């Protein structure tokens, strides 16, 4: 059977880790050298990094991009918590036990920041350099357009609908994506059963201290300073319709030593909108030796 055209954009060999509760978590590992781990955001998957992965490999890195459970080519279990604490548990198992990485660089986009930074705060000795791409890790407000998704009954239906998924994925950029790229993003979520995570995600966004996930967001707000000595690069699309620019400025306040750059013609998926600018910036930033 002939593969869909998007596979040509994502030619990496698949690897699988069995999580502690028996599910398969997918990741790719490409190149040799200093490990760099790439974390995707909500609704995307490691396909987002398809062009950055080979570039990093040519600059002396082993690029490792994982799909969180429920996303991409990982299992999409119907009955799983989809809580941040369990995604963090899987990520910790991947880098500490499966890959046994002594130290690595970290690139995060969107909601992936929340997983990666909680890991980094708990294991600062493991982290060399950090890149943040259009992502929030603060619980003060819902992303724009997510309010309806918290309504009883109808909210979960809307969040799991294919139309919501399509509008969110294809509308999270400033420039028009080629159809083959849209197909790649949407490929893992074709069936209703593939989209369990989309119904659970919004409910795990904490809006009060009583929420079981609130502490993980609070950890970042209050403990990010412990990572301030690490080199940070923050790249931001100013046309992001999901996360506003004030979050970019908040990152600058929390990490005053970071190199922070914004791009006026890019949206939430900054690597799609400004690939020729952002990818080389990331490669040069990670090429520096030391911490």
Fold and architecture overview:
This protein has helices spanning 52-58, 84-98, 112-122, 154-160, 162-170, 179-186, 196-201, 214-223, 245-254, 270-273, 275-287; strands spanning 15-18, 24-30, 34-39, 61-66, 104-109, 127-133, 232-237, 259-263. It has 291 residues and is of the alpha/beta class. The chain has one domain (5-287): Alpha/Beta hydrolase fold, catalytic domain (Rossmann fold). A hairpin with a 5-residue loop joins strand 1 and strand 2 (24-30). The longest helix is centred in the N-terminal third of the chain and has 15 residues, at 84-98. The N and C termini lie far apart (48 Å).
What keywords describe this structure?
single chain; 291 residues; alpha/beta; Rossmann fold; 8-stranded mixed β-sheet; 16% strand; globular
Break the fold down into its secondary structure elements and pairings.
Layout: E1 15-18, E2 24-30, E3 34-39, H1 52-58, E4 61-66, H2 84-98, E5 104-109, H3 112-122, E6 127-133, H4 154-160, H5 162-170, H6 179-186, H7 196-201, H8 214-223, E7 232-237, H9 245-254, E8 259-263, H10 270-273, H11 275-287
Parallel strand pairs: 3-4, 3-5, 5-6, 6-7, 7-8
Antiparallel strand pairs: 1-2, 2-4
